[in-house]
Amino acid sequence: MGNEPSNVSGESSQRQHDNVKNGLRGTLVVSDEEGHVGDTITLHGRNFPAEQQVEVRWHTVEGEWGVLEAHEIVGPQYRPRTETIGTVVTDEEGAFDEEWTVPEDYGGRHRIEVTDTDGDTVDDAEFTIVEHFELDRTAAPLGESFRIRGYGISPDVMASNYHVSWDNSAVGFVSGVQNRGTATAEIRAAGPVGKHVIEVWHGYRGVPYLLRDTQSPFRAVAGDRGSTWTVQVTEPEEPPETAWLDPLLDEQPIPAHYPYLDEDTDAELDISPECGQAGTSAIVTGTDFPSHAEVDLTWYRHEGHESEGREKAPDPTITPVAKPDVLPTVSTDSDGSFQVEVEIPRDIGSTRPITAAVDGREVAVTGFVLQPSIERFEPTSGPVGTDIEIELSGVGWTMYENAPFFVYDNKPIGYLCGTGGDYDTGIVNPVLRATGEPGWHFIDVYPSLFVVQRDKPDFELRPHLSYLDNHPVRPLPAFHFAFEVTE
Known about the structure:
Blueprint: H1 8-21, E1 27-30, E2 34-35, E3 40-46, E4 53-68, E5 72-89, E6 96-101, E7 108-115, E8 121-129, E9 132-135, E10 139-141, E11 145-151, E12 161-166, E13 169-175, E14 183-188, E15 194-202, E16 228-234, E17 243-245, E18 268-272, E19 275-276, E20 281-287, E21 294-303, E22 319-323, E23 329-331, E24 338-343, E25 350-358, E26 361-370, E27 373-378, E28 381-382, E29 387-393, E30 405-408, E31 411-415, E32 431-433, E33 439-446, H2 467-470, E34 479-485
Parallel strand pairs: 2-8, 10-16, 19-26, 28-34
Antiparallel strand pairs: 1-3, 3-6, 4-5, 4-7, 7-8, 9-11, 11-14, 12-13, 12-15, 15-16, 17-34, 18-20, 20-24, 21-22, 21-23, 21-25, 25-26, 27-29, 29-32, 30-31, 30-33, 33-34
């Protein structure tokens, strides 16, 4: 793969030489040098001892986003991973032929190794996974989506992200950092009704790289499978919904975002549910507090701003700050317990710490994951030039969620900052202008990455189209809107 040594053939020859000296023998040949996820290849074993059991191993990596304190994005990180393909027994001539389906895994070079019963390497071979992309359909009603799924995206710096364009406008990027090189993206079926073109490009610097084949340091995207589709947008049977949010998932608060307590006691604080939007009714429960005591519950928000220094590392100025008069003061019973119902307020999103204090000293903490909401979208129709007002709450403060990126008819516009909204409510209020021919137009708001400490490849401040299965830390939802331009 991208992090495998370049002299694999030399190493293999040396290993075979050492094996022969040690009395081991055997040759592994792969039917194909390269292929795609889902292909069937054949592993040919020859010259092994007769009727001997051997193990076939697949060498690859495991990837994840490096994130500090569930906030600062370091960049993609990969570690070695080895899996056993299977155990086979050679025939009376010391041979075997095993068919194997290439699994969902990262693109690039992989080593396939044969070991004996002692775990010693007998021989190995090399197989390269070539990335490819599939489109779920080639026709969709106006306002619905085309789903693109990429397989075999490499961890190599030059091929770890790809850009998707709609009618020659770069919509955003897909990454395969997580999910073993598989990434999913949805592209709006935007107008006008008729034919449009979707294309996937290389682009590790954050924009599509337009040279191809012999004029490019990259190989052709997806090899011989292609990466361009002509699609048909059709008239919808019903008018589209005007404002909606991707389905929200069950989430748990992140303790790394809690403030430090004044005392370490046996007191415990819990909240149910642990996540939801503003306005959610939640039950806060306390146990093992002093009996017949007053307990002050305090809601925390995160305040501050991020900046990029010379090393492109975030300035850690965002901290949890107590927000008084949001939650009540309660009294414990004779067992030192209490239970109270509260309404979750509008605020900046992500983990919202809640502390419990006795005699002015905080002794217990829990958290609630405040998820995003659409508070207002109006008007929903009007002539070209109409001001479209959008109000969102619950936009988070961390590097991976505080910069939602706005796209109009699959054309990127810009981003906003989740910590830049109203102090009391955390509401952010962008205003866009209606443009385009009469008919329906679509605004999609995708997660992006605000600051990444490593700048190659460049993932920063671009719509992250594979947020569905490859976003750092949390699978964030996207916002979607439809506006009708009138005559």
